[in-house]
Design brief:
With 144 residues, the protein is of the alpha+beta class. It has one domain. 16% of the residues lie in helices and 53% in strands. The chain contains 1 helix and 9 strands. The chain has one helix at 2-24; strands spanning 28-34, 36-40, 44-45, 52-61, 66-77, 86-99, 108-116, 124-130, 133-143. The longest helix has 23 residues, at 2-24. The protein starts with a helix and ends with a strand.
């Protein structure tokens, strides 16, 4: 009788320890902005029916726990000398750090394609900028 109670108590202790250790491992996530170093865009693109793909390059982080997550695109009109048809595209690119305890030691680099939809009435010349470097032109696209 005594050994049966001891065995049950030991089994219960093992279950409690396993649950305790399993709950200690937490996945930590942190979002951050990625600085776009350079882009690749077509010189001339058609606005309809397809979107325009912009290939973006940059540095995400020091290990493989840093990954590309998402992007935002801001478009605004830049009327140069009162001529309509000049626009700015500002890219805001986000990464995510996922720390699950195991990270491969290799730099995580950005090499993604983002898509921008431009309507027929918004044809013109687009200059692409990064959110971090609003004064540095990354490229130009003429949409016909």
């Amino acid at each position: 009788m005594y050994s049966k109670k001891l065995r049950t108590a030991a089994q219960l202790l093992i279950v409690v320890c396993l649950i305790g250790f399993a709950s200690c491992k937490k996945v930590e996530q942190k979002h951050f902005r990625i600085k776009v170093d350079s882009i690749s865009v077509p010189d001339i693109a058609r606005c309809e029916p397809d979107s325009i793909g912009i290939q973006i390059f940059g540095y995400i982080g020091p290990n493989k726990c840093h990954v590309y997550d998402d992007y935002l695109v801001y478009r605004k009109s830049q009327n140069k000398d009162d001529i309509v048809g000049y626009y700015s595209i500002i890219l805001e690119v986000y990464g995510e750090k996922i720390n699950d305890g195991v990270c491969r030691e290799a730099e995580s680099l950005l090499d993604e394609i983002v898509y921008i939809f431009i309507k027929e009435e918004d044809k013109g010349e687009y200059t692409v900028y990064d959110y971090h470097q609003p004064d540095i032109e990354l490229g130009k696209i003429v949409v016909i």
